[in-house]
Structures are given as C-alpha cells and as structure tokens.
Design a protein that fits this description.
CATH topology: Arginase, Chain A
Largest sheet: 8 strands, parallel
Bound molecules: manganese (II) ion
Strand order of the largest sheet: 2-1-3-8-7-4-5-6
Strand content: 15-25%
Number of strands: 8
Helix content: 25-40%
Shape: globular
CATH architecture: 3-Layer(aba) Sandwich
Order of helices and strands: HHEHHEHEHEHEHEHEHEH
CATH class: Alpha Beta
CATH superfamily: Ureohydrolase domain
Number of domains: 1
Structural class: alpha/beta
Length: about 325
Amino acid sequence: MNKADKQRFLPVSGNVLPRFAGIPTFMRLPHVGIDEAKSAGVEIGIIGVPWDGGTTNRPGARHGPRQMRDQSTLMRNVHHISGLQPYRLAQCADLGDTPVNPVDLADSLARIEAFFVKVHDAGVVPLSAGGDHLITLPILKVLGKGRPLGLVHFDAHTDTWDRYYGEYKYTHGTPFRRAIEEGVLDPKRTIQIGIRGSLYTPEDKDWGLAQGIRVIEIEEFQALGVEKTVAEARRVAGDGPIYVSFDVDGLDPVYAPGTGTPEIGGYTTLEAQQMIRGLRGLDIVGADVVEVSPPFDPTGMTALVGVTMMWELLCLIAERVGRQKGRAN
Ligand code: MN
Ligand code: MN
C-alpha cells in the first residue's frame, strides 16, 4: 500500500467493527463537514437531504437518509459483477445532511441549493439520498447551471406536472418541468423509465413529449427488456454530462413498499440494478435516490433497496472520477 492509499477514506470493515455497531454513516465512510470537504480531498460526497415538504400525498421521506445510513452498513467494498472498487478509485465521504426547514418549502429549497453550491465549488460529485423528489430541483439548478444536463430518470411518474392546488408550482410532482424551464435540464437528453399509473387528465403526457423527453412506459420496458432499454438510455443521454435520479417508486411496490406514491406493476430490483450497471462509462456528474419513506416500511427493506441502488451508482461515479485522476481500479 503506497502513501496515497494510506490516506484514502475507507469504510469501516465489518470484519473489524460489527456492522450493527458504531455510528452509522453512509457506507460506513468517514463523516467530513462540507466546509472541510475540499481541504480533506473529498471527491465524491454522499449527502442526505431529509426533507419531504414537497410531498402531495403520504409523507415520511424526510426520515429516509437516517434509515438509509443504517442499512448502508450492509454494503461492502467490491462490486460483485463489475469488480469495481469505488474506495480505491475515489475519495468518498459522508458529507452529512443538508440544512432544511421543515416548516418552509421555499426556505428549504434555498438551504439545499446553498449546500450544493458548496459541494460543487469544492469539486465534489454528489450522490444524494432524499427526501422527496423535489430535492432534485435545487441540485440540478447547481449542477446544470450554464450547462443543461442530460437525465436518466427511473420513476413511475414523470414529475413534469405543472401546478398543484391552483398556482402552486413546487412539489415532488413538478421538479423536472421546473428544471427544464430554468434551463438546467436538456429535455432532448432526458429519458424516463418505468412510467405508469393513472393520470389526472388525458393531456398529462403531452408537455414532456412536446419538449422531446423520451418516455419509456413500463409496458415498453417489458417489451424491450433491460438490454434494449439501456441502449436507448445511452443513445438519449449521449456523451455529455448527465444526472441520474432514481425514485424508488419506479420499482414494483413488492420490492419497495416504503414510499409515498406506490404504483403497482413496476420493474424488479435486479432489473433496476442491471439498468444502472448499463450506464457504465457515461459522464455522470451527480445522482440521487429519493422517496424512501421509512414509516411505510418498518422492516427497512425499502431503505436497503435504496442504498443498494446508491452503491450501484457510486461504483459508476467512482470509475469516472478515477479515470479523470488517472487511477486504476
Ligand atoms: Mn419521482
Ligand atoms: Mn414517483
């Protein structure tokens, strides 16, 4: 082990401290404060956004990050298929939770955005745990500023609705419409996978399609299968910078019952893992897993599903960072 490796942030091994012991951080990595992230050399920051004030139906996703940290103690160091070793490829740390204000939506969005400005200025690639899906909007506003990002979006819902309750523009059903309007998301490089469920009106589908978003409803996913869906995602996303957003309700609720807006008839956990693996090599500049709502799944399995998707994403992001730094796996 060379000097650089000795300084590398590594998870606490389950062979040294049992997985049920100690203070739970994401993946059992060191916790580094956001103001120290740059000087500490953090390259990938795992971040909790404990906020669900954009939820229109069943809340609870504010509790997601804490339970996902706990379940993340089950993750180990080497990806069993790709062989990727993220902690050799990149300096990864838990940057804690963003500030939020549970009684004020606009203030929360401002606080979350300010936190991600610090993350971005520190040169850190964020991998975040929600929170409801509105948390993705302030993240995209930071990462997509001046360079509209592509998006691979796993979800049962398009989240491109316009307004709720009359004039209200900011909910977990609207983040991608707002992001396109803000010019931080490129609809022509956006693909949504797993869309299903009843609509409010027949016109609900029109806006996103008119913007050029590629929508793969669950029936098309079933027809295409994982391999062709991945090929389509890669075609749409292209070579430019992309964000990956994974709403756990894209999965069948059999696999992820702990979420606010379940829709039956989704993909399996393994299909989702295989689709994420299929994004290997793309220019992923950030990712999140959202809508884990622990109160609806006291077993913690949905949180385990969520952090396992984060692990899959972490491996891809670490490979990209490692390539930029000239490190081998
Ligand atoms: Mn969503
Ligand atoms: Mn959803």
